[in-house]
Structure formats: structure tokens, C-alpha cells
């Protein structure tokens, strides 16, 4: 008799694409800006960013809407990636989501 070929599991389905939601549809659980993250002299003290969270509420990506100094953008990205949110739920299931945030910087 011929040997039975090994069973190869089906590949996992790709994760769902993030849904875009209004900022008030998500709840921040933890996160703050460190004291050293400040607006450079002559720069606006407010920055806008698009945050995306995964199904666990962890920040998965940060895209700045405001034009920022490279060093400030890098520091802010590091800080924002440490923030945690309550997972966004759609039809009872936690799903990835993206939303806009406004960050007030110390000057």
C-alpha cells in the first residue's frame, strides 16, 4: 500500500483589515507622553496622528498627519506605541481599528 501523504494544515486566514473609527469609539487604558517630548521652539504645540490598534488594543502603527521634526516624530512614535487601548469591538468581536488623535505637546 502507498504511504499516506502528511496532512498539511491550511494557512491561517489573514488578519482582518483595520476599520476606521471616530476617536471617541476607543478607550485609552494606559499611556502618557514622557516629559522630554516637547515641541521645538517655533513649532506648534499640537500634533495630529493616525493610530491603528490591533485586536488586543496594542498600537500597531502611528502615522503623523502633522508635519513634525524628525527627532520629535521618532520620540512621539516610541511613546505612542507604548499606549494601550481597550480593543475595538465590531459585532462583539475584537477587531483592528484606526483613529485620529490630537497630541498636546509641552513647549
Ordered list of secondary-structure elements with their pairings:
Blueprint: E1 19-20, E2 28-30, E3 46-53, E4 59-64, H1 70-81, E5 84-85, E6 88-90, E7 93-95, E8 97-104
Parallel strand pairs: 1-8
Antiparallel strand pairs: 2-5, 3-4, 3-8, 6-7
Please identify the structural class as seen in this structure.
mainly beta
How far apart, in Å, are the first and last alpha carbons?
78 Å
The counted number of beta strands is: 8
CA-atom Rg in angstroms: 19 Å
Oligomer: single chain
SSE pattern, N- to C-terminal: EEEEHEEEE
How many strands, what sense, and barrel or not for the largest sheet? 4 strands, mixed
Shape: elongated
Neighbour order of strands in the largest sheet:
1-8-3-4
Unreliable residue runs: none
Instruction: Indicate the proportion of strand residues.
Output: 25-35%
By DSSP (H or I, 4+ residues per run), the number of helices equals 1
Helix content: 10-25%
Let me know the average pLDDT.
87
Amino acid at each position: 500500500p502507498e504511504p499516506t501523504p502528511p496532512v498539511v494544515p491550511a494557512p491561517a486566514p489573514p488578519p482582518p483589515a483595520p476599520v476606521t473609527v471616530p476617536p471617541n469609539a476607543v478607550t485609552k487604558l494606559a499611556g502618557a507622553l514622557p516629559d522630554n517630548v516637547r515641541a521645538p521652539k517655533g513649532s506648534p504645540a499640537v500634533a495630529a496622528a493616525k493610530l491603528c490598534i490591533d485586536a488586543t488594543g496594542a498600537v500597531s502603527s502611528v502615522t503623523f498627519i502633522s508635519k513634525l521634526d524628525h527627532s520629535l516624530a521618532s520620540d512621539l512614535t516610541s511613546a505612542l506605541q507604548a499606549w494601550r487601548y481597550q480593543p475595538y469591538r465590531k459585532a462583539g468581536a475584537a477587531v483592528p481599528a484606526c483613529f485620529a488623535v490630537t497630541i498636546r505637546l509641552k513647549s
